[in-house]
Amino acid sequence: MGGLSCAGAWVAGSDKPEKDSVRIGFLPLTDCASVVMAAELGFDQKYGIKIVLSKEASWAGVRDKLIIGELDAAHVLCGLIYGVQLGIGGRKKDMAVLMNLNHNGQGITLSRRLAEQGALDGASLARLMQAGKREYTFAQTFPTGNHAMCLYYWLAAHGVDPFQDAKVITIPPPQMVANLRAGHVDGFCAGEPWGHQAIMDSAGITAATTREIWPDHPEKVLGTSAEFATAYPNTCRAMVAAVLDAGRWIDASLANRQKMAEVIAAAPYVNMGKDVILQRAGPYSNGLGQTGDERNDLKFYGGGAVNFPFLSDGMWFMTQHRRWGLLKEDPDYLAVAQKVNQIDLYREAALLTRTSVPDGLLRRSTLMDGSIWDGTQPKAYAASFKIRALQ
Fold first, then answer.
1. Is 91 exposed, middle or buried (0-12, 13-18, 19+ CB in 10 A)?
2. Helix, strand, coil in percent for the chain, rounding step 5
3. Cβ-Cβ contacts under 8 Å for 363 (sequence gap 6 or more)
4. Which ranges in 87-145 belong to alpha helices (H)?
5. pLDDT tens across 177-194, in order?
6. What is the pTM of this model?
7. Cβ atoms of 147 and 172 closer than 8 Å
């Protein structure tokens, strides 16, 4: 590590970043915070790069700009990256996951109208849907994305087939609340602060947080094309290191979270009142008089446990793509994940930032329906669900 300076950065010689300026896209969501703070607090400069942030309007726009190279990297849905890799979420292109950005921090919102009819959670929503005769419409943010997979999983766990028993549409996150308020959708799954904004607008209630579906689930990633990762490995390592430092800073104290909320609330970023953001970065209300501690859910670092790009995390999204018929055949789950997730680059950045890394590449989780996911039998796992589209 001859290029490692006492300040903790590669800044010279063969390890110097190939690009000194990187354009990173993001959507106005609370979990863009570590990317934003990496730029705002100067962690990027510490590692020899300048992060130029680009606010985007939709996940489809992020996808397209990553594919054509208009963005170098992005705060992006893990499921989107894998969808593009497999050619089911747009034009097929080899993609790369550099790191996880956060765990948890998303939610399922139901309209106030449904809540007044008794639909306060998944079980009561299922009863209402089974008793009624009208069509129910729910929204997610991208067809192969995390919110779609979480929404489908949650509905199916309560006996609702998301394709046979409901209509599901795609809406960009910033447009969710307006569509809910107008009655165009009965509920949605999206990242914060839009779930809490629905409560503030008296338009909806939080029926479930995604942590209840899959505790400490992977959410946004720092994604790029495989072409970019291959051409600019030192730049990618510098980006990961800067974001690791920013995530560590955010999780270090409530005061830091408050400062983060002030920064990302500004118009160039989320353009939202800081109190709305803080409501899901600390103790929060679900709109029904109950409170929880989202700070224990929305994590950006967690001692480094948040950021490691476990192969099993990416594989889970592929199992759900297969479950719902987006993939017509089972892929080689492990081989695809090994190709997409840039484990070696991440480990180098982790060493650089003194971030702990796990020994293994797979992790074990218990989801809301009691199913165990550990990445070892992905084909059997995808086919194991009672409610599914695959044949």
1. exposed
2. 45, 20, 40
3. 310, 312, 313, 374, 375
4. 112-116, 122-131
5. 999 999 999 999 999 999
6. 0.94
7. no
